[in-house]
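Input set for joint prediction.
Command: fold jointly, output tokens.
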Amino acid sequence: EVQLLESGGGLVQPGGSLRLSCAASGFTFSSYAMSWVRQAPGKGLEWVSTFTSGGNTYYADSVKGRFTISRDNSKNTLYLQMNSLRAEDTALYYCAKHMVQGGKPRPYYYMDVWGKGTTVTVSS
Amino acid sequence: QSVLTQPPSVSGAPGQRVTISCTGSSSNIGAGYDVHWYQQLPGTAPKLLMYVNTNRPSGVPDRFSGSKSGTSASLAITGLQAEDEADYYCQSYDSSLSGYVFGTGTKVTVL
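tokens >
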């Protein structure tokens, strides 16, 4: 069974840092692009960052320069290093696995498996 | 704010048909990028409901169907059931933002 399990969330002060982890199982982790998606309390979904199987990384403008996505294929784990945190980064952070139909490029990827999420609260 | 617009809410009686629209622009849906749909039951993570405009993953009832035309897409639920009460999000890619975008979300209520 394909599973994603996020961890590392917590309460942090504005300007602080936090590292999220996403442990994957049940599939060949290195072969798939992975993303982080967040959901602020009572709000909708917002894409945060993607790490492709080819090693390319992409970020939403709202986190560019502050967040860094990485992966360790030997540990089947995806990470999100979050620095200079702001109150507006408060959200439930989901890890998601990507799929694509017919070998199409990254813009055509969709998210076929999601983890349960880990909560990040930025507050003094 | 999201570049994909959905109605905040739709409702229907059990057995009825409801549709959820997802309106984009020439830099996302209108550019030919695929639209995908996710269902988020209360207190749970999103789940893939429809991929590449019209395809249902294994296990998704055929009461759910998707379509795409021009700069918009739609999700239809026929034979509405109580367990369909959830938030629904469309998702595509935006070339101006160089990233994935989600719709504003629609809450479906079964009367």
